[in-house]
Design brief:
five-stranded parallel beta sheet; globular; Rossmann fold; 13 helices; single chain; alpha/beta
Amino acid sequence: MKFSPDRRATLLAGAAAVALAVVAAPAAAQKKYGPGVTDTEIKLGQTMPYSGPASAYGTIGKLQQAYFKMINENGGINGRKINLISLDDGYSPPKTVEQVRKLVEQDEVLALFQTLGTPSNSAIHKYVNAKKVPHLLLATGATKWADPKNFPWTLGFNLSYQAEGVMYAKYLLKEKPNAKIAILYQNDDYGKDVLKGVKDGLGAKGAKMIVAEATYEVTDPTVDSQIVTLQGSGADTFINITTPKFAAQAIRKAFDSGWKPLHIVNNVGASVGSVLTPAGLDKSTGLLTMQYYKDPNDPQWKDDPAMLEWRAFMGRYYREGDPKDASNLYAYLAAQAMVQILKQAGNDLTRENVMKQAANIKNLKLPLLLTGMSLNTTPTDFFIVKQGQLSRFTGTQWQGFGDLISTVD
């Protein structure tokens, strides 16, 4: 979508006004600083897979650097500029450990923000908690990120993988109770977490609906052989628990093989830009997924004010980014949530207070979330996203159906 210069200026002015409203922190009587904070700077750190098998997610880190650039150009947070140090870990846990140690011990960041990947974050989980470094808004939905009793310094962002799996299972029990289910999943904590949710949702009786399972490693070149095996099971329902590269391969191979199951793809592998377009939009028609934020490809949001502001931001600050890639909209939401946490911290920018604020988010309504949703945390509940909506791919965009589903019974 292209805007006239006047229209773009108006939209960006609106976006800047929103940003300033978010970042305007109340004056505090006394300044308290932790590592990485001065009167002019707040230093954050993250690792991203800019290379390796999950490099499609690298756009998340690039957008967030662009978002903080916009925030900084509009005065920063209470006069302090955000300095996000974003390092490549190649989606390799040993590399993540190396890079995070550098961020904590050499760069002395105030907090970690949106470190991506379940295996990557698992490798640093105990270390950052022992160091008492806020480990915030992780770009992964593993259920274990919401364990404030044992890991009080770690708080995730995504809809819980187990909750997502439960939602798919409940849908099948209601709409296709005689389904023969085949499941492909990544052989690590991420894949097993979604799988557990599916099995928990099906229950002991429903578990008999699963007729085949197959795994893949992130180092595998393709998942073609796994798809052939699953197709041979006679399954009429396929749950595809994969990251973008392998999600695209699985969608394409299933279609090209003539297999026509009810095909469910998990949220992290459902981007139109980075998954469905490479797989083939015609081959993706009819897919189901779970969403909790607006799809930039859905025409119902074409004139939505928040979507127009996001597109204007993309046009000015991240022109190389793909507006069709939902990962870019996701990254924007996470950055907004981080800004809210820093805003709530005011001038008490210690690690302890930043973590306290992250655990006390109250009814945060970010306009790019699905209508009716808000973000909430408490000191005993670190699940920040608790709702989602089933969506079907029409061939051009995801189309939500039914009501918002809550993860809280």
